[in-house]
């Protein structure tokens, strides 16, 4: 019973401390929700960009006049030609 008399004068300080702590916790939660919302918006934007790229690739691949194999071979031929045209670098002995 004697301990109760000690707690009564401390009650206002304990309530104020609890109020400050709960306000801080609420602010932290709000900040975390803001960060989560930003991440969700960024992911949504990224998903839209990727979906658009996939649509473009689908159009390219399914286009009747587009010959993917011929394009790939043309790129390979261009690389081989570029490689042959470059002068060899002189090797130095150490």
Q: What can you tell me about this protein's structure?
A:
Helices cover 84% and strands 0% of the residues. The model has no long low-confidence stretch (mean pLDDT 83). It is built from two helices and no strands. It has helices spanning 2-62, 68-85. The radius of gyration is 34 Å and the shape is rod-shaped. It is an all-alpha fold and 94 residues long. The protein has one domain (9-83). The termini are far apart.
Write the layout of secondary structure elements.
Blueprint lengths: L1 H61 L5 H18 L9
Condensed summary:
By secondary structure, the protein is mostly helical. The chain has helices at residues 2-62, 68-85.
Strand content: under 5%
Query: Could you state the oligomeric state of the chains shown?
Result: single chain
Tally the helices. Answer: 2
The helix fraction, in percent, is over 70%
The tally of structural domains comes to 1
**Major sheet:** none
- In total, the number of strands is 0
**Overall pLDDT metric:** 83
C-alpha termini separation: 92 Å
User: Cα-atom Rg, whole angstroms?
Assistant: 34 Å
Which residues sit in consecutive blocks of at least 5 with pLDDT less than 50? none
Run of helices and strands: HH
**Global shape:** rod-shaped
SS class: mainly alpha
């Amino acid at each position: 019973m004697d301990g109760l008399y000690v707690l009564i004068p401390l009650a206002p300080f304990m309530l104020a401390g609890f109020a400050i702590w709960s306000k801080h916790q609420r602010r932290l939660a709000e900040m975390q929700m803001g960060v989560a919302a930003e991440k969700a918006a960024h992911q949504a934007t990224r998903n839209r960009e990727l979906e658009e790229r996939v649509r473009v690739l689908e159009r390219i691949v399914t286009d009747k006049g587009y010959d993917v194999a011929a394009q790939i071979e043309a790129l390979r031929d261009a690389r081989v030609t570029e490689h042959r045209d470059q002068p060899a670098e002189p090797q130095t002995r150490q």
